[in-house]
Amino acid sequence: MPAKNVNDVIALSKRRGFIFAGSEIYGGMPGTYDYGPYGVELMKNIRNAWWNTMVYMRDDIEGLDASLITNRLLWKYSGHEGGFSDQLVECKKCGARMRLDKMKDPKKCDACGSSDLTEPRAYQLMMGLSVGATADGAINAYLRPETATTTYTNFKNVLDSTPHKLPFGIVQIGKAFRNEISPRGFVFRMREFEQAEMQYFVNPKMDEKYFEEWKKNRMAWWIEVLGIPANKLRFTPHEKLAHYAKAAVDIEYEFPDGFDEVEGVHNRQDFDLGSHTKAQNEFKINAKPIENKDSTTKLSYSDPQSGENFIPYVIETAMGVNRCMFAVMLQAYTDEDLGEGKSRTVLKLKPALAPVKAAVIPLARNVPELVELAEKIVNELRGLGIGRIEMENSGNIGKNYRRHDEIGTPVCITVDHQSLEDKMVTLRHRDDMSQERVKISDIPSKLLEIIRK
Fold this sequence. Notes:
alpha+beta, BirA Bifunctional Protein, domain 2, Rubrerythrin, domain 2, 3 domains, five-stranded mixed β-sheet, globular
């Protein structure tokens, strides 16, 4: 059973080195978190799983890593500078700040219940920067609030350097920054977060087909790659579409306090390339972009068969990597009653996602021969290049098992005195705690088999 209480995972995250509060020794900073030794590994494995599915398993998608700081004009013509804001309400009694669309009751303060509230006002979500030695504090650039816009402005660069026919896509994984009014839900809503986004460029006549395809593809990834049960996920169409969208749905995961968004799939029409292209009046743009007199490049596509030159439509998939990791941890978190007053906490992660792939444990840390054999096994397994392999040499086998249960290590390998004679070790499996005796020479193939499940 997945975690019933978010606080259980929050406590585990700090205790076992997954996630720490940002700037904690100075009282913290709301909406920021630091990822510890095992959080770094889990995040990396989720990124790799996404990249493998989106890029390495396909021929029609390319990767990109664009700058975090960009020319201010990008955000002017994307519409962010003029319209990327939330409605802010402040409580005159307790000083709490709230997003109007997230308030339980728009007439009462969520914190103290007071009805003495300010009128809603626009709150700029982008984080402004003062770039350059002579900027004198004036905002002349922004930290990007998403990765999508720099993908659109690189459309022609990617198309010219890696020739593709439509449809094709560009993906990015990277940091984004937003002035969230009320960061909440642990790592669910933060000021600094990570996105994994794809922009898939299609012929306008084929947009509905590819929108449905990507809905199916992305839902399948959550189920098959991450191991989230289908009954814990659902599609929720947007009740109110953004001005650029023809269609939009969220993939929602059932968190302990209810379903909430973890990924979006959007048909953005030709708004984005149309907004950033030169010579807008030369194209039939169905969306209504801001008039652009600054772009130097036509972001169009010439169909080699029909000869038609047009602005492609964009099908977008946008996932929050931090939210994804949180959902994966909540789903994997399990408290098991072992009977006789004993219990254990275990993260039943998919083996490929586990921060540590295997732990090698010499039964006695003061026996040089056992330690030497364990180190030899560790070095051989590290040579497989499958991720982190840990050497555990604390001497308490029970505590070692429990620690690795909690961080999700799929298998522990115990080297005992008999191993010196029969060249065999004990494999202890995380999920059912079963043990088997295996030849040392068979460990690499056995571990690869476990990781690939």
